[in-house]
Amino acid sequence: MNAVWRMGLAALLALAGCGAKREEPVDPAQSQLQQAVGQLQQQLKEQPGSPLLHFQVGQVYDRYGQADSAVAAYRRALALEEGFPDAHFNLAAVYYSQGR
């Protein structure tokens, strides 16, 4: 009877774990990207016409391999200030890395 009781307890414990909600592993890089962009987005709410903030958003996206988002941010910075040499350079670097 002792062996039957142990098997029943093991089955019950196994079934109890089946409905447990598993959390997806958190990607540290994705978390850092979201945090950095989130901080800059807060600043952009206060200064939406700041080419420097858009440039910094582009740098963050570029650092984390989000080329399309980086291009969009650099282009927005250049739309606000056409003579922004660092934005031109970084945009060209992203285009070059994409083979464009």
What would you note in describing this structure?
By secondary structure, the protein is mainly alpha-helical. The protein is built from five helices and no strands. Helix 4 (67-80) packs antiparallel against helix 5 (85-97). The longest helix is centred in the middle third of the chain and has 19 residues, at 28-46.
Sheet with most strands:
none
Mean pLDDT: 83
Uncertain runs with pLDDT below 50, 5 residues or more? none
Number of strands: 0
Report the span from N to C terminus.
Answer: 74 Å
Strand share of the residues?
Answer: under 5%
Spatial extent as radius of gyration: 25 Å
Approximate shape: flat
Query: Strand pairing plus helix content: what structural class?
Result: mainly alpha
Number of helices: 5
Estimate percent helicity. Answer: over 70%
Could you state the order of secondary-structure elements as H and E?
HHHHH
Topology readout:
Layout: H1 2-18, H2 28-46, H3 51-63, H4 67-80, H5 85-97
